[in-house]
Amino acid sequence: MLQFTDLPACTGGTLLQAPTAAAPIHQLLIDSRRVGQPAGALFFALRGPRHDGHRYLAELYGRGVRLFVIDAEAALEGDLAAFPEASFLLVPDVLTALQTVAACHRQQYRLPVVGITGSNGKTIVKEWLAQLLSPDELICKSPLSFNSQVGVPLSVWQLNPTHTLGIFEAGISEPGEMARLAHMIRPTLGLFTNLGTAHDAGFASARAKAEEKMQLFKDVDTLFYCADHALIHEVAQAQLDSRRTARFPWTRQRTLFDGQQADVLITIHDASAERTVVRVERAKPLPQEHTFTLPFADEPSVENALHGLTVLLWRQVAPAEIQRRLDRLQPVAMRLEMKQALNDCYVLDDTYNNDLAGLSLALDALARQPRRGRRALILSDVLESGLPAAELYKRVAAQATAHGVERLIGIGPEISQNQAAFAGLDTAFYADTEAFLTSFQPDQFRHETILVKGARRYGFERIVAVFQQKIHGTVLEVNLDALVHNLNFYRRRLQPGVRLMVMVKAFAYGSGSYEVANLLQFHRADYLAVAYTDEGVDLRQHGISLPIMVMNPSPDAFQKLRQYHLEPEIYSFELLDAYLAAAQEGPLPAIHLKLDTGMRRLGFAEEDVPLLCQLLQRNLGHLRVASALTHLAGADEAQHNEFSQQQLAAFHRMTPQLETALGYSIIKHALNSAGIVRFPEAQLDMVRLGIGLYGVEATGQEQEALRPVSTLRTTISQVKTLPANHTVGYGRRGQAVDHDRRIATLAIGYADGYDRRFGNGAGEVLIRGQRAPIIGNVCMDMCMVDVTHIPDLRAGDTAIIFGEGLTLPELAQRVGTIPYELLTNVSERVKRVFITE
Ligand SMILES: *Cc1c(COP(=O)(O)O)cnc(C)c1O
């Protein structure tokens, strides 16, 4: 692990106020809002056109950050004496230093690394390649599309000794950028996805662009690409030294294949609306032919999947196994996904970035969609074009018109100011996303194909979510930024060096295991825990490489623990015997010993410890213990403090005996979310964070400091008047009403996880910011609310079941349960939508 004092040698910078003790670097920080554990965070004060990281030094210092990289200009102006104990690395250019530190980190690892570049599909190809290889490898990959000059260093920094393969994407917009990315990624294998025809401001010609991108691959052992992209093929031949780099091209054209310009010929054999059957021929090493079915039909997805398929062929994965893995490919959100939306509309979801090049690609995709009614574009301010605004929006308008767009909704201050540019179109403008959503009326959109294209900061996922909500009726919106906020709240409470295990059991408390786990992996949690083996397998198949503890391992699934490298919790002698027996057939992952100190649920009791120690000692050769844990029965309530202390005392009596028997030290952990807040002195080596991550502070004392993560929304299916003296719903339980009332029927019921106990006035929902009580019983798929006091409601309007303004703790109290139950009850049939701000 790099130390702060290694940095002058690595970057050529100068140390000011050098640290007196060892200062290992745990996190590279570029955004002052993302401080987790401040110990070991190294802040890079980057400068941008509208941004200067140096402005945040004092704030970060106040939050405990002690390691900073700054530039000379700042050092002259600032008064560093105001930051006692802080250490500074002074460099000429902070971005270069960030990249150099990442490059030094990368150099510590010798493992195969796949570098991916190309005009389109980098992120999807990366995600799919990771999905396809995850049964064989523990993979470190770029999160989301972290492929820029800043994204790549953060991606590469995630490499750790457990990984067996890296997959990183590289994106550039100007000459000279690729050499810097290549230096950090140091790929040993290369994959060139394709080359778009889009006009790129930064390059003299398409060939110049191809040559620049090819620089990523100058030292790879093997390069994969599709030779049908003639320019890629040409430049690969011209630029790569064939003695150093093997080329592994595939093609869809027999002429290229028979002329031996490509290793693999792939022809489309059959295609339907949902799948594509391809025939694959190879001439080398032996002539062979196979047929595979891809679970996609659209052209870009097929090409992206074929890149992955080629890599598997090259790795000589058996054809039947390749097919199994292809069958499991999951669509990757966030990139040009076509989604069915309200009122027979379709939404092309590109809510990820918004620059001119990206816009023109997205408009191409829109124009390729079959025509059904009008084409509409919902567009945020276009960023980083380098053009004066008036000129920029004139170009945007011309492009939109050229692609058949008839309707434009502009969101953002800049586009609103330049509305004159869009005079030929049917237009509406809003200052921000919130303003659009507030005035959103479902009937304004019918039979349209709508491209939703926005820079990330506009959070256009929410727009897509409301369009989709009208289809799915009910969605659970999971705010990933809130989740990170909560993670950092708990991190700040940890003593230095205490590790963090995060509980993602029960579908991550209802929030979606894989997405949450992926985020936690990026934010460097140390461990994950799931309840059952299959939950762990699922995470591995989605490319999660963090260590995972399985709390209820069943002996018939021990082989899966080995195959997917999952570490079981062992809580009884029966389970231990079974594990030891299985270990005779080959080494098994390390175990976690559960000690029962008073919960009386699972675990070894104190009187079991001597026998346990004997067994461990007898099997030192084929069993490794990673940790010992216990669980407090009443960590959240002061009335149980004495009992909790007794539990901890018992734990402290038991664990030294285990360590003595083993002859090495193990990780010891006892605290859940409530315990982290209430027993800071008992954090030991690790803590286990659960409900707090999802926004519920179990002790109730610090609820204010957490952000709600989940919002459950549904729609109104119908609004009707209920005359006096009538009742509502089954069993005629809704009390006969004394005067006429307006009743709204909501598209959520107990099969969606909306508890029946909310019926007959016990529960309320939020509509237009006002509360509406449940009237009558909650049915299987719907329920009714009294909306007499909320005027002008219509079918399609939104109701919030829980979220901001109607919290889980309040609702749980109303029906005599705990927030955990309400959260985990939300049925898997409810679509999860992930948003970031
Ligand atoms: C679920 C669980 C936790 C997390 O508990 P929270 O109250 O959700 O923080 C911790 N430890 C064990 C053993 C658990 O099963």
TrEMBL record:
Residues 709-835 form the Alanine racemase C-terminal domain. GO terms for molecular function: acid-amino acid ligase activity; alanine racemase activity; ATP binding; pyridoxal phosphate binding. GO terms for biological process: D-alanine biosynthetic process. Pathway: Amino-acid biosynthesis; D-alanine biosynthesis; D-alanine from L-alanine: step 1/1. The keyword Ligase applies. It comes from the Bacteria. The keyword Iron does not apply. The active site is at K505, Y730. The modification N6-(pyridoxal phosphate)lysine is found at K505. GO terms for cellular component: cytosol. It catalyses: L-alanine = D-alanine. Substrate binds at R601, M780. Its cofactor is pyridoxal 5'-phosphate. Catalyzes the interconversion of L-alanine and D-alanine. May also act on other amino acids. HAMAP family: Ala_racemase. Belongs to the alanine racemase family. This is Alanine racemase.
